[in-house]
Amino acid sequence: MTTLTKLALGMMGALRPKPATGRSTKSIALPPPVKQGGLPLMEALGRRQSSRDFARKPLPLPVLSNLLWAACGINRDDGGRTAPSALNAQEIDVFVALSFGAYRYDAATHALHLVAASDLRGVTGYQDFVDEAPLDLVYVADHGRMGLVPVAQRESFASAAAGAIAQNVYLFAAGAGLATVIRAWIDRAAISDALGLTHDQQVLLAQTVGYPKKNS
Ligand SMILES: Cc1cc2nc3c(=O)[nH]c(=O)nc-3n(C[C@H](O)[C@H](O)[C@H](O)COP(=O)(O)O)c2cc1C
């Protein structure tokens, strides 16, 4: 769908998910992430960039597993995560939109849990590439977990935490030869509806990930 069509549908409140392609299993146990090797950090920083040309090729499950662990997985025995959060509130949930369903990443079990048995990639933003790239991540703040943070600062702290997760994804992508772009040009109400979010949950940002298009 073109960006213009998506904008028009968004204005009418009609940006909706498509039927899922493939079977939406209730939960997906991710294989253990590989925590060794990869590109040295300084080289990954040297390659970090935003890309908007994605091949349709799906991401294999081990790649998705490594990516989500890099994003905000548990990296310590005390439950600490790869990304920081104010007062360790760990308030950001990562939702994972795939052609066969939308899932919430559960860091504790390193698994995906189904939240919508539909293809809602197209709902995650106005730009046309989001529909067909294999993966759109959505970063959602759960204000229910931010009780210790003053109300006036919750949104900015949560946005900072989401930004840290996004940069982890950028660096993982740089190391794994993937393309990615963080996105704020999104229809938050449409995404919230499609994911069935509560009033406590606030959609902050989205991020597309996939293999780079060969000819770009
Ligand atoms: C908060 C934020 C929101 C952004 N929103 C979008 C967006 O909606 N769409 C998009 O294509 N790029 C978006 N970007 C990516 C920027 O355009 C990109 O980072 C910038 O052009 C610099 O390019 P680089 O990331 O390759 O260094 C966003 C970046 C940030 C930090």
Largest sheet composition: 7 strands, antiparallel
Assign the structural class, choosing from mainly alpha, mainly beta, alpha/beta, alpha+beta, or little secondary structure: alpha+beta
Order of helices and strands: HEEHHEEEEEHEHE
Distance between the termini: 20 Å
What CATH architecture would you give? 3-Layer(aba) Sandwich
Q: Uncertain regions: pLDDT < 50 for 5+ in a row?
A: none
Q: Determine the strand fraction and express it as a percent band.
A: 15-25%
Helix content: 25-40%
- Tally the helices: 5
> In one word, what is the shape?
globular
Number of strands: 9
CATH superfamily: NADH Oxidase
Strand order of the largest sheet: 2-5-4-3-7-9-8
What is the mean pLDDT? 96
- Whole-angstrom Rg: 16 Å
Number of self-contained structural domains: 1
CATH class group: Alpha Beta
Bound molecules: flavin mononucleotide
CATH topology: NADH Oxidase
